[in-house]
Amino acid sequence: MMTWRAWWDQLSHHARFRLYTRVTLQVSIIAIAAAILIGGWAELHRLSAGIGLAVASFAGCVVLETQPLLASQERRARSTGLRWGCVAVLVTTWAAVAIVLLTDPEGPTLASSGMLVIFGAMVITLVALAFHPYAWSTTLGVALVSAAAFSRVSDNLILTAVSLVAATSFMLLTGRLSLWALDLMSSLERTKDLEAQLAAAEQRLRFGRDLHDVVGRGFSAITVKSELAATLSRAGATDQATAEMEEVKALAASSLEEMRGLVRGYRAPSLAQEVDGAKSLLLAAGCELQLQGSTDAVPPDLHQVAAWVVREGTTNIVKHSRATAATLTLGPAGMALSNDGAWQPPGEHSGLSGLSERLAEADAALTTSHNPSTSTFSLEIHWKRT
After folding, report:
1. H/E element holding 325?
2. Looking only at Cα atoms, what is the longest distance across the chain?
3. pLDDT tens across 19-49, in order?
4. Distance of alpha carbon 295 from alpha carbon 312, whole angstroms
């Protein structure tokens, strides 16, 4: 069974901020309702006032919970009807109390009715109008209607109107700023994805350029000498044509070897370069990598396999965790890579099985450990030959 910490660790930064925003707005609604009750403005002995505040608070919290810009994708898809139903409850409650206050010839004197109108206007503004394209004009209309209704239990219409416009504007600004922050977080997430894609594209372009520079010269020489050999053969100079073809053969073999060396150079990573690349990649993902020891401590003949460990381990941290801190330890007897934010151990597609085979060829042992209580994952390698 997944613990709350493991559940939190598996959420993306955007999902965490969305959850934080949603809960903060819901707590604001409940806090305002509690302040009205504690202050006695809703007249606690009036059961209808307490029920009205409770219904409005619950409906507002449900609307925020199912709001498309704040809810998760799964809840968003199946909660459209519930959201609109709660919005209807909110608007109906607010409008009913406002109509009663405006049309009752007796003129109700209960402050609870007026406070319920004000509370309804603030909640409607926060949970619905803040997401509306015509938010400001609609909010102004709701505020003025609420002020007119509350004026039946208040002596100062102008002060009531100004106070209500200020209160609803504050709620609208709160909702709008929350949406702006969410949009900013989404932009940062997209920027990180684009940065990774651009890095991969840059790597492919660099490889293509190096391949062109290394192999292109050899193929150009092969083309020229092949044409010369064909010309000499047609002219009857078979010995010279044969010599040219021998050179073509040698150039082809040399170019093939250069191409293989180029590919090996890209496939065989450098330990120092991989450590620097791991720091940069993890920092971009919001994780700080601490290095204990140095690359010089690793036996030189094991640098290549150690570089593969760093590369594969770093990839797993980014793909399978929400780590904020990682530690890489390098020593003459082995190495280790640990990180937090691992709500579950990497699965079968993590590349650890392939890494184990590569380490076995280098006579090294791989062990992994996962601690669910602290959400930490550790990768340890021991150089048997040392």
Report:
1. strand 325-330
2. 123
3. 888 889 889 889 888 887 776 655 544 666 6
4. 17
Residue range 142-201, pLDDT digits in tens: 888 888 777 766 667 787 788 888 888 888 888 888 888 888 887 877 777 777 677 767
What's residue 336's pLDDT? 93
100 within 8 A of 106, measured Cβ to Cβ: no
Which residue shows structure tokens 């890489």? 328
Torsion over CA: 263, 265, 271, 272 (sign)? negative
**Residue 287 confidence class, pLDDT cut points 50, 70, 90:** confident
Residue recorded with tokens 């302040």: 35
Q: In angstroms, rounded to a whole number, what is the distance separating the alpha carbons of residues 359 and 380?
A: 11
DSSP state of 132: S
Q: At 303, which helix (H) or strand (E)?
A: helix 303-320
Q: How far apart are CA 201 and CA 204, in angstroms?
A: 5
- Distance from CA of residue 320 to its chain's centroid? 13
Q: Are strands 364-371 and 376-383 parallel, antiparallel or unpaired?
A: antiparallel
Q: Are 97 and 113 in contact (CB under 8 A)?
A: yes
pTM: predicted TM-score of the whole model, two decimal places: 0.55
The amino acid present at 281, given as its one-letter code, is L
d(CA 264, CA 280): 24
Q: CA–CA distance from 293 to each of 10, 186, 330, 359, 383 (Å)?
A: 30, 37, 5, 21, 16
Tell the residue number behind the tokens 């691992």, with chain if given: 342
Place of tokens 């006695």: 40
Q: Which two tokens stand for residue 312?
A: 């594969």
CA distance 176 to 157: 28
Burial of 204 (0-12, 13-18, 19+ CB in 10 A): exposed
